[in-house]
Amino acid sequence: MAHQDGRCATVAETIYVQNQTSLCSDSAPAADAGAGTVGKPICSMQPLLTFLSSTRDLVVIRGSVSGGTWTFTGQGAAQTSIIGEQTPFVAGASAAFSMSAGSIYIRDLELSSSGSAGISATGGTLRLEHVTVDNCKQGGVLLN
Fold first, then answer.
1. CB contact set of 89 (below 8 Å; sequence gap of 6+)
2. Considering the entire predicted model, what is its pTM?
3. Burial of 107 from C-beta contacts in 10 A (0-12 / 13-18 / 19+)
4. Are the C-beta atoms of residues 94 and 72 closer than 8 Å to each other?
5. pLDDT tens-digit profile of 105-135?
6. How distant, in Å, are the alpha carbons of 9, 23, 33 from that of 126?
7. How far apart, in whole angstroms, are the C-alpha atoms of residue 53 and residue 130?
8. What is the pLDDT of residues 45-72, one digit of tens each?
9. What is the DSSP letter of 52?
């Protein structure tokens, strides 16, 4: 969490998103202690909001995953962080990431949308570092 206080993230605060058909599950409940871990990641961004909390606020995206159809409104902690690893790519038909409130930090990620803007922010605080927004039907980053 170098962008916040310089400390290393803990396993307990991390949610993994990685589309590995043999390991991942989008149907496992957030109450399942193994769900969203490195050994049993969620497959897409769709169920992410059910996993976010004040103590679980770091999202690690590995490889290519589908975006969610939801809008981030500050669920969970004071700041949620989304960090990409292993050629991370989020794609969707709606905005690859949409927010209306809260504080979000996104680093080392590529986002694309086939039917909307790549990132849509109508409120809150959005911090981007090494983020690529590309091939979006309605533009890259919409700040409204």
1. 63, 64, 65, 109, 110, 111, 112
2. 0.90
3. middle
4. no
5. 999 999 998 888 899 999 999 999 999 999 8
6. 20, 31, 29
7. 25
8. 999 999 999 889 999 999 999 999 999 9
9. -
